[in-house]
Amino acid sequence: MSDYSSDVKSNPPGLAPTVDDSRKILVSILGAVAVSHCCNDFIQAMLPSIYPLLKSNFSLSYAQIGLITLIYQMTASLLQPWIGLYTDKHPKPWLLPSGMVATLFGIGLLAIAPHFSVVLLASALIGVGSATFHPEASRVARMASGGRFGTAQSTFQVGGYIGTAFAPLVAAMLIIPHGQLAVGWLMLIALFAVIVLSGISRWTVKHGHAHMKKHNGQSLRSLSPRDVKLALSVVGVLLLAKFTYIASISNYYIFYLVERFQLPIPQAQIYLFTFLAAVAIGTLVGGPVGDRIGRKAVVWISFLGVIPFSLLMPHANLFWTAVLTVCIGLVFSSAFAALVVYAQEVLPGRTGMVAGIMFGTMFGIGGIAAAALGKFADWYGITTVYNACGFLPLLGFATLLMPDTRRVK
Asked: Quick check: 250 and 299 in contact, CB under 8 A?
């Protein structure tokens, strides 16, 4: 309140408190983007959450379940960089609500799908909606950042993680017990998101690009082509390590708890939820910390700080397994916002393309890693998977090679 009062006093009589109003608009836009991200990722996470229902209704094999995932993941991951690249050169604010309309139709089809081919079409539409959403929404978050790009990016991302965390719980409690038609209720969430995103698009047309120009390129130094290639290569290695490990927890943690500690599946789902909640909190904290101490410092803390937890986890009892996985979620997730913003600083003016590549890579690595780790678990056992994945954070030493993007003061 005191900040608001000082802003009002500093303005001439009769004029609106421009600075404070601007802050309020930025916060509202950023909040709207985070809420819409929550809706988008809630819907997309609902797809694998209802696999038991779809498997029962259509007598699907595991290979067919995998095909649903492949169609969705490939649609979402392959389209995102191209959509981002195109909209960097030709801004299309209307793509935000349009993409969510595709998701809405996908959910509707999924609710009434009479056979497997329609399920595949529905998953492709949901993938198209996700591919359209992430590059554009990430760009809007940067527009609304007021120069605090890490804070904005982490706020945007935490909305998605919240949606992802709650989807399995809602599916178990409300969707699966009531059958396939109950999926149609998710159309209300998609419709709400369309309305929110329409408002965001109108703001983008009127004010967004002015905000972007005001803060783009501040305190940055240009990198040589060699340094750009090096920076992006290091980011790629770090993303591979991060999302392979996250995929191991997201996809197989429940099976690990059931096999090793004989937990019932509903109780194991609660443990998975606590991990996903920790990921959301870590993401939210990582962005502002990166704005204060630098992107590279956050990456160092995230990757090296998680090493003892990841190495100890396969050898711990149930209590300490839960504690260690929460620590892993908190620490490891803090780096993603920093990596996205760092890559956007390496390639200024390519906000949408970078966001598309980063989120597309997240989907792609997650899908491929899940399949590879599943095969590895079939051969050597689920505990061996976590013993091996525990060494992945050591790839964080590649951070030593990351060029600085900030000017030396």
From this structure: no
Domain boundary among 174, 199, 216: 216
Kindly report, residue by residue over 334-350, the tens digit of the pLDDT.
887 788 888 878 877 77
Alpha-carbon span 125 to 268, nearest angstrom? 31
Q: What is the pLDDT of residues 23-36, one digit of tens each?
A: 444 788 889 999 99
CA distance 194 to 322: 37
**Spatial separation of the C-alpha atoms in residues 263 and 241, rounded to whole Å:** 28
* 95, two tokens: 């793509």
| Residue position matching structure tokens 């909606």 | 129
Q: Which of 190, 216, 242 is the last residue of a domain?
A: 216
pTM, two decimals, is 0.73
Asked if 101 and 153 count as a contact pair (C-beta separation under 8 A), the reply is no
220 pairs with which residues across the strands? 406
CATH for 308: 1.20.1250.20
Nearest to 42 by CA among 202, 174, 179: 174
